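Reopening closed ticket. The problem is back. First fold of the pair:
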Amino acid sequence: MSRTLLSLGHGYSAQALTRVLPAGWTVIATTRDPEKAGALRARGLEALVWPGADLGPALARATHLLSSIAPGPDGDPVLNAEGERLRAARHLEWVGYLSTTGVYGDHGGGWVDETAPLAPATRRGRLRAEAEAGWQALGLPLHIFRLAGIYGPGRGPFAKVRAGTARRIVKPGQVFSRIHVDDIAQVLAASIARPNPGAIYNICDDDPAPPQDVIAHAARLLGLPVPPAEDFATAEMTPMARSFYAESKRVRNDRIKQELGVALKYPTYREGLAALLEVEDGSPAG
């Protein structure tokens, strides 16, 4: 059976998904950058520069749709530009929207699951919560994926640790959940194989941890000195960097295991960083 994925904003996580899709899939990917579109075509994907291109023909062909495009100050650009056509796209078998665990807001380090009320503490989180509601209002077979902090090849701490620019900012009680991009891909693929319209899934690993612990572990894997601890209260940080510390919570991931049968490849940052170092160095970590 022919299947076609329309991937809106074909970025880091969506690219990981396409690498694990079974043979026979057609992928139509959008990007804002003409050069990136050329690179996608070189990898065997169909590519559209959007905004700009007419999405109508691609949407008509699509059996599945994934949106990775973040909302901006004016809301979700996909809903703003294509909402009516999406609402009419009743042929779609599966729709995925990549959101963030930031929609839960601050829980003082406590645990949250998919039933927790949305109480975003940041502007980014509020925009995501509004976008989720907009996608839900379309009446499509929607699946929402709330992603924790993403890491993976090209997005790890090792380069900064090696360069001596990694920082161990310590804020008492602060924990973050995170997820390796390969585990995002396998969750999305599992959902496509087992659709459950209306479902919401947290995608995170089993071990929410203080950020300073992750940097320290990365340094040890490299055999380099652990960067000194810096007090959050007095550390020099950009407003954007400081805003990430406005929320502390531990995110539960039981639903991806129970409903989708997912066994995480990297259940904690320790396994994830070790594997990442192997990819980057071509040799086992340790």
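Second fold of the pair, where the issue appears:
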Amino acid sequence: MNSKLFKTFSILLAGVIVFSACEKDDPVIYGDVVGTWNLSALTGTYDRKVVTKEGAEYSADSYDLVASWDDAAGFAAAAGVDAALVKSITDFELASWEAGDNAPGFPTTNVFDAAALAALGIVMQGVFDDAPSKDKPGTYKITGTYPSVRLNTETCTPYLTVPQINDQGNYTLTFDATDAAGTIALSPATDLEQVLPPFPDGKFAVNGDAGTLNIDFLDRDSHGSRYSEVMAGWSEADDRVISGLSQLPVNTLGGFFTTPDDPNASEETSASGYVADAALAPWGPEGAGFGYLTWYAFNIILEIEVKAADVKSPLTDLDGDGELTPTDMIIYMHADNLAGGGGTSYVGIPYALLVDSSNPAAPAPVNDSATDFALSGLATGAGGKMKFTILSGLCMPVDETIDFKSGWTSAE
């Protein structure tokens, strides 16, 4: 009896062992990457190169950012001249870009740590399911919100927005010798609208004990030639990125349009400011190394073009430097002053107001930068700094790549 009981018990025990062996979890193919992760850090380095291409929206041979003189229409009315003509001769080109140039403001790197992500409302969660077998990919889902630079194409003004992301697709890992890092390939589902681009050569590193995952990849599906590295077909209408610029930083000390690398550049950009340049130094603060485009400076510069085309008394290279510059025009005006010629500029300003000829041996341009130009001063020939406004933003097609480095923390 005891023997039969022992045999029966042994059979049951063997069954339990076999059953338990069948219930044992299969080995995890993708290791510590499998699980749920919350975005904790994100760095994006954006590179945009200007494009000129047939079929591309806004395509042009040259992309010119133009500012218009605030008093152009008022001056035209006061002087009784054509407003379009005044605008054409007073519009000022602040900057210009051609194909192959860096788009304005690029390359640029945006760094978001956990605090910055929270402040902007950027929340992303990634769920990475394991591969069913070694010869098949795993699946992923990314949900939440993400940072995106969009463009108001009516004004060509960029702005930051935080839209929703609800991505899914397949992923494949190729481990290196450490079994904790390697290459990640992402294949978004093709039947759904996706945010993340496909890529075959991302890099990952995972630390299961610390609960951290890093994924780095290069987004190139908006680059006209490099897109073929990640996708089969390019759509000019859907894949082309348009970059925009409608304002510039202004120098906080001088109030003139400047560049972001100016140590005195304002943190905020503006569509309104003065125009200043080193070549305009005679019409600026003494010793500053720059001057403003003032009403007097403008008259002298405009007069260069007018007199260069004058068949009776053309302006020549009077200082012998090989080109026509304000210095040549100042010498020309000075000679007219000394001769009592009574010359006036194209818009009617007497040469005697523009150039001080009190020292016959040393003509000097009159510096009118201490005040702002006012229409009321036209009657007395007063000058002043000219104020300009960017009335129309500049849109331009670009080739874009984004180098993303993302950090994730385990949610489990």
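Update: turned out to be a display glitch only; the data is intact. The radius of gyration is 34 Å. Residues 18 and 27 are 18 Å apart (CA to CA). Please close again.
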